[in-house]
Amino acid sequence: MVRQVAWLCAILIVTHSGALLADSTLPNLEFNGFGTLGLVHSDEQNADFVTDPFASQGAGYSNEWSAEVDSRLGIQSTLHITPKISTVVQIVSEKRYDGSYAPKVEWANVQYEITPNLSFRVGRMVQSSFMASEHRKVNYATPWVRPPQEIYRLLPVANFDGVDMRYRYPIGEATNELQMNFGGGGVDYATGSIDASDSWGISHRTHWGDATLFASYGELKVSADELSQLFDTYRFFGLPGEELASRYEVDGKRTNLLNFGLGYDPGSWFVMGEWARSSSPSLLGESEGAYMTLGYRIAEWTPYVSVARAKVTSNTSEPGLNAALYPSPFAEGAQLLNKILNELLASGMQQESITVGARWDFRPGMALTAQYDYIDMRSGSSGGLINQQPEFTPGGRLNLFSLALDFVF
Question: Would the pTM of this model clear 0.70, i.e. be above it?
Fold first, then answer.
């Protein structure tokens, strides 16, 4: 099972896509694919549970049972041009912010292998910020229905267009991989877009027997049109507004992300976990997330349990402008700005969750997973829920049931 997943993941994600095919006939074109048919139920009727924070609908308020949260289809082509040069294009169709399933280019890059251990890529790739970053959309390659949101929602912009370098080297019985990248990317949502420029990252992965150690660090500059407009409006209120804008504006300030992960998989059971911290001297503030998953394999069955936590370690409220200092209608405007700012500060994910699930690999390349999540949204947090209705009360509890059919071909 472990070797099968690793092999399929290597084909789909092409971490070593320059390897020659057995017949050594070049050029050679390969096609692979992956997908998930998912169904999610949430008992929160006044807000929607989503995995994509920019989605338009989810499970709960919009749909008691939703097939839009986890379902997707991906197609990947790999062209081996020469023994050292290959290209990869991966296209994914899933529910987008505008309600459509319009395909999106997830990967599009050219790789050049200088040596069997050193390679460069240029084009569109995925930041190597987390242990499962590169196959986070290939649910068949992970034990869960979806990666723990307490970690994987810390980085809203995962794709980047730029350059990437990988170097593999052994130390004793351990194999190591060092990866460095530089570039920029962006993501659209219903009322604007978020752009990440001048992003760079470095990650290191060590496989030592049955153990895996992972560490990464990255920085990026984030900008968002709506946030820029908000703080430009603050500046109309003189020096107090200028001070608040300078303190919380996002544009031009760097956000950093630090992550540590570990895994141990002797075959019959496995344990894995990650801890990550995101920090920015802006409205984005400081957040931490962590999870730990334990699973046991019994023939084709893999029951598992996971615990996770996310918290905001920076301020979640701000007094803002003193409306009493301004005449009407500026006083009402100051109150509105303060309300928006505090809603944004309080929107960070703060929750604890317990997950229990079981995966059934009933045939090669196909698996059926059932999962239950109990989520306790703490400190008045909305837990990343969207479409919040007037009756919604932050800081409550949420019960999720998910069923997913994952496949690769």
Answer: yes
